[in-house]
Specification:
two-stranded antiparallel ribbon; 10 helices; single chain; Rossmann fold; alpha/beta
Length: 388
């Protein structure tokens, strides 16, 4: 092999003299091309990619900061999905246990219902509601032509998001609607009806009788659109609360802080509106410091000093068996009389929640037994201040 290479070497030498410079030229050409053309392009693209990565990193840091800072939202988000999973597991276990022991009864109900037995249809419907409320909602939704892409986790999340602990509430722009909307598997339907359904009309009846330009106070205004409604009706409104009022109007001024520390209105008041607020004062609710004594009575007495002769207090509060906890007081007839000592009550009504979506008015005192099973009530009062 070595001898063959030596024999061929003289013949290869001329080619080497020709090929080596060509390869060196090609190599130099590639170096020039890379340095002057390809490398700037690569460097430019690398710089662009770096900027994109830096932007992505910044957005990720912002996202992480939001999630880390908003622990309540993150916790609630996780809780809603865990709650929905637990609920579905419980429903499946209940359905399986019932079917294992009641298959013949179910077959009988189905047979009777298919023959037009209305009692069997009603019993079957109740059974379906008990075993699989989500399935029942889907059946009703399909019957009504509604089949929304809402699963259990999404439904629970939407219910939380639209409630008093959701993002709107955390941002201070939740307004406690009188009728809630309930999301369930595949459908949306009206939910609970709260006391706002009777409190707001009670207030607006008085507001409509006031002359434009009248001066009024809305105590505990946040989480309500009442102050904005009063201002929109032409009244000069002062909205007071421990928290900022999120809505604005040219006839609306806002006072933030404990009302007992406020110097008072610039003008005598034609009316004071106090909607489901007096029951909370002094107890430490809504980040307020607890106070000793009967702060609710002190504030009502202050209202009387601010009202002009003939002015009116429009007050609503929880009503039933007397009770006090960290959030609120529930008044009864005796404690309401103490709260309004010296005032002349011109109108009084008690509204009772008789179903999750229904309230009924009582112009006389409901029987004490009304409240024994936890039934809710609200007292509606109009009163004029003590004279002198």
């Amino acid at each position: 092999m070595g001898r063959m290479r030596r024999l061929l070497s003289p013949f290869a030498f001329p080619f080497r003299r020709y090929i080596d410079p060509r390869f060196r030229g090609i190599h130099e050409h590639i170096d020039v091309a890379v340095d002057h053309h390809l490398r700037p392009h690569v460097d430019k693209r690398a710089a662009e990619l770096k900027r994109e990565l830096d932007g992505l990193r910044m957005r990720m840091e912002q996202f992480e900061a939001r999630v880390t800072a908003d622990t309540q939202t993150a916790a609630e988000f996780a809780t809603t999905f865990r709650r929905s999973t637990d609920r579905l597991t419980s429903e499946l276990h209940t359905a399986w246990a019932w079917l294992a022991g009641g298959e013949s009864h179910l077959a009988d109900l189905l047979a009777r219902a298919s023959e037009g037995d209305h009692a069997a249809e009603e019993e079957l419907g109740k059974l379906l509601r008990e075993l699989q409320p989500g399935a029942a909602d889907r059946v009703v939704g399909a019957f009504e032509g509604v089949d929304l892409p809402i699963g259990p986790g999404t439904a629970d999340f939407l219910n939380w998001a639209s409630g008093h602990t959701g993002p709107a509430a955390q941002a201070g722009v939740w307004f406690n609607p009188p009728v809630t909307v309930f999301h369930h598997d595949g459908t949306v339907r009206p939910g609970d009806v709260n006391e706002r359904i009777v409190e707001i009309p009670w207030c607006m009846g008085v507001a409509a009788s006031l002359e434009p330009g009248s001066h009024v106070l809305d105590f505990g205004a946040t989480e309500s659109t009442l102050s904005l409604s009063l201002a929109s009706l032409g009244l000069e409104v002062t909205a007071t609360d421990l928290r900022p009022y999120p809505l604005s109007h040219p006839r609306l001024q806002v006072v933030v802080g404990p009302i007992e520390q406020w110097s008072g209105p610039e003008h005598p008041l034609d009316a004071v509106f106090c909607v489901s607020a007096i029951e909370h004062v002094g107890l430490g609710a809504y980040d307020e410091s607890p106070t000793e004594g009967e702060l609710d009575r002190q504030i009502v007495e202050q209202f009387g000093q601010w009202l002009k002769p003939g002015g009116e207090l429009v007050l609503t509060a929880p009503y039933g068996h007397w009770a006090v906890d960290d959030l609120q007081r529930v008044y009864d007839a005796n404690h309401l009389d103490v709260l309004l000592h010296g005032w002349t009550v011109t109108h009084r009504a008690v509204c009772v929640q008789t179903a999750h979506d229904r309230w009924e008015r009582h112009d006389s005192e409901p029987p004490s037994s009304t409240w024994d099973d936890g039934t809710r009530g609200v007292v509606l009062v109009r009163a004029t201040p003590p004279k002198g």
